[in-house]
Amino acid sequence: MIQERKKFVSYIESRIEDNNSLYARFHLGSFVGGQALTIANALRRTLLSEIPGFIITRVEIDGINHEFATLPGLHESILNIVLNLKRMVLVGENLNIFSVRGEEFKASLNTRGPKIVTAKDIKFPAELSALVPSHYIGTLGSNGELKLNLTIQYCDPVIFQKTKKTDLNNQFAELIVDTIPKPVKQVNFGIHQMPNTSTDEYISFEIWTDGSITPKDALDYSLEKLTRIFYDFISFNNKSSKSFF
What letter does residue 94 receive in the DSSP assignment? Predict the structure, then answer.
């Protein structure tokens, strides 16, 4: 008789880091000896490269038609403004990470100097906000004015890498922000032996995110995504009338 192994996902600890990132540690098990490493590698790869997130894909700045231009009264170059916008972490409010992929949102900024321009000066739609309202964008002098429109997308990194090049056909006044979502910054794991057994194992996971998603949500998403991928093959195999063996 084959003994069924009890599965568990245990939430061990969590904390907020100094740079607004989120950290958490989990235990996953139990697995037959040698199986845990296969699962851990698949989850780590999914966590680091396939978690969706909000990114700015296009920037339109009034009076600017390329990223190497300058604006009167603006201390930074347009290139630096775009880079500062690119580094801004965006957070969704009550959005299901499985259902909003590909959806576009619009935001705008219209301000005059003298002042230090930060993320709190941007008018976001109700669904979005900046994780850090004090995130620096630029500095305007007394004669400076900055008007810009942002296009924001909630993107799956795998799909977005394949389609983002088509954005280059947009009108020249829009600056393309070349980036992909990477809400999970670091993942560590270790394989440990289950107590009171010489064969079963469990995985200890450490996950750091940029603050736009919790480590728990990132892990839940990865587990569900991998399950869906394998389930699609099972569904296809059940519908197929041919056998390859």
Answer: S
Q: What is the pTM of this model?
A: 0.84
Assess if residue 245 is contained within a domain: no
CATH number at 113 reads 2.170.120.12
Same domain, 94 and 115: yes
Residues 36, 60 within the same domain:
no
> Residue 244 has what pLDDT?
43
Where does a domain end: 176, 199, 221? 176
Using CA atoms, how far residue 6 sits from 11, 111, 202, in Å, is: 16, 58, 11
In sequence order, the 6+-apart residues with CB closer than 8 A to the CB of 86 are 56, 177, 179
Helix (H, G, I), strand (E, B) or coil at 139: strand
157 lies in some domain = yes
Among 161, 153, 155, 158, smallest CA distance to 46 is for 158
Amino acid at 89: V
Please provide residue 135's backbone torsions phi and psi, each rounded to the nearest 5 degrees. Answer: -55, 125
Please tell me the predicted confidence (pLDDT) of residue 13. Answer: 95
Q: Identify the domain containing residue 38 by its residue range.
A: 8-50+184-237
Q: Do 236 and 72 contact (CB within 8 A), yes or no?
A: no
On whether the CB atoms of residues 181 and 160 are closer than 8 A, the answer is: yes
Where do runs of H (alpha helix) occur along the chain?
Answer: 35-49, 78-86, 157-163, 215-239
pLDDT, tens digit (0-9, with 9 covering 90-100), for 7-46: 899 999 999 998 889 999 999 988 998 899 999 999 999 9
- Indicate whether 199 and 212 sit together in one domain: yes
Are the CB atoms for 230 and 39 separated by under 8 Å?
no
Identify the residue whose tokens are 């199986």: 35
What strands lie across the sheet with 104-112, from one edge to the other?
104-112, 145-155, 53-61, 174-176
